[in-house]
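Hey, resending since the last one bounced:
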Amino acid sequence: MKSYLKSIDVADIYVKPDRQRQEFNEAAGKKLAESIQKEGLINPITVELDEFGSYALIAGERRLRAVRSLDWQHVHCTVYEHITDEERFGIELKENLERADLTWQEKAKALATYASFQQTTKNAPIVEIAKEAKVAQETVTQAKILAEHLHDPEVAGAKDVKDAMKIITRKAEAKHRSELAKTFDLKRTPHSLHQGNAHEYLAGYQAHTFNGIISDPPWGVDADAFGSQAGTAHNYKDSWKVAREHYVSLAEHGHRICMPSAFAYVFLDIRRFEEVELIFSLAGWKVWPRPIVWDKLGSGMLPEPDFGPRYTSEYILYCRKGDLKVIKRGAPDVVSVPVVTDLKHGAQKPAGLYIELLSRVCRPGDKILDPYAGSGVVFKAANKLNLIAHGVELEESNFNLALTTMNEVGEDNAATEIVL
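The structure tokens again:
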């Protein structure tokens, strides 16, 4: 693959439509033109001499656009003759990776195509491809995965590679859980799980069915818009208008379907404590005047790192129906349990937290309800404490996740991590 330098008429250079770079920043282009006008063209444009005597651009479209905007008639170019598609693509890719960056979508597609060329023609391993492209080996592997999923609008619309990979991973896990769920024998477990609307199931249960409720309904804090600040996506609508309807339904129907002596643990945003407290009080519950605090041991979301602290706690409304007495007298109102590090659900709670809360009020054989089952952590806690748990989950991927959790057997290691 030989090349030489030559001054070429700008008008003789043409650009093929299938370029790796498709987006150009106008402001950056103007800045580049000003630099070239002041200092000259430091790096020549790279072209290929075609069979008709014209020059097809290989690399340097930003520079070509800049010199055209300056009305240059001639420009110095590195000229290649008789090069292969693979060689041409590799030159363009290296140029783009080393200079003004492609969008992450363009870079992934280009790097994946280059890797495909190398593997097809040379049977080159990933490590050699990465070395040749001057990128990390992981970047090449990731690019191949991303390129295969760019047809998915949700993946293509992600703000960066990290978010795109999260989406791909989440969807792959959801598909796996869906396939796995089809193999489960629900007769092997004392628990039950239903896919559907929480309001409808709460209204349909018979009176005096459950010994208590533990639930984490939508909070009304727009969690569906948290983006990368959350460990994983919140795939449910989370406006306060919608959340309030859930709290009202949970309070009113929950009071009816619980035994004369029963409990309820309800997660909420601390800013809504008084409103939710009133909702449950009006429904007949006796609400404990202060929330139980879940201390996450330093972990949590950092919403505005330049202006305030990290959120390392969550809050739980505790209430009772009738004269239910606690089993653990004197248990503290702060429960310290580490967060789940491998989140599969946007609001996933550690099993140790549910185990601690339920152990304060439940006896073996009690029936408990979680009408917003999410990841199904209530089933882990129920297995540990010998309870019978019932769950409801609307969203299909979460339902399959909860179903997987419900059918897991064995001790829950998270329970040993409780620090009181």
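The chain has two domains: 3-158, 184-417.

Sorry for the duplicate.
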